[in-house]
TrEMBL record:
Protein name: Uncharacterized protein
Compositionally biased residues, Basic and acidic residues: 117-132
Region (Disordered): 89-132
Lineage per the UniProt record: Bacteria, Bacillati, Bacillota, Bacilli, Bacillales
Keywords, alphabetical: Membrane, Transmembrane, Transmembrane helix
Transmembrane region(s): 7-29, 60-83
Origin: domain of life: Bacteria
């Protein structure tokens, strides 16, 4: 349960960070006068590490990458937790069929003790013998 909460928080925080960076970039795009490539990606990442004019970009590449990594880590944690079988789960006991003497209201079926030997092929009646 603890890991599910951690994964959910990481996924939600990463989604919020990336989403708000996209919203900020879309709101910033109309104010840009020059760009290279796609306007939204240029507003987020900028032109490069040696760009002299950072005023045309918000330079939010690092927070964007951290948000994507948080989202991915949260999804991985959630996937592992949801698809991994519980290791501490005890083996479920097999259901006990009630004996006819208990009177469960169902049909009275004979019980077969485990130490009784099984019937051989010669002992099993054929369909003709059963019908006659």
């Amino acid at each position: 349960m603890k890991k599910i909460i951690i994964g959910s928080v990481l996924t939600l925080a990463g989604t919020w960070i990336v989403g708000f960076i996209f919203i900020a970039a879309v709101l910033f795009v109309p104010n840009m006068s020059s760009w290279d490539g796609t306007r939204v990606w240029y507003a987020i990442f900028g032109g490069g590490p040696y760009e002299a004019d950072l005023k045309q970009s918000m330079a939010l590449g690092l927070p964007f990458a951290i948000g994507v990594l948080m989202f991915a880590a949260g999804i991985v944690i959630l996937a592992i937790e949801f698809f991994r079988p519980e290791s501490n789960r005890e083996r479920m006991p097999s259901p006990v069929r009630p004996t006819p003497s208990q009177g469960n209201g169902g049909p009275k079926l004979p019980t077969f003790p485990a130490d009784q030997p099984r019937a051989k092929e010669e002992d099993i009646p054929t369909m003709k013998e059963v019908q006659s």
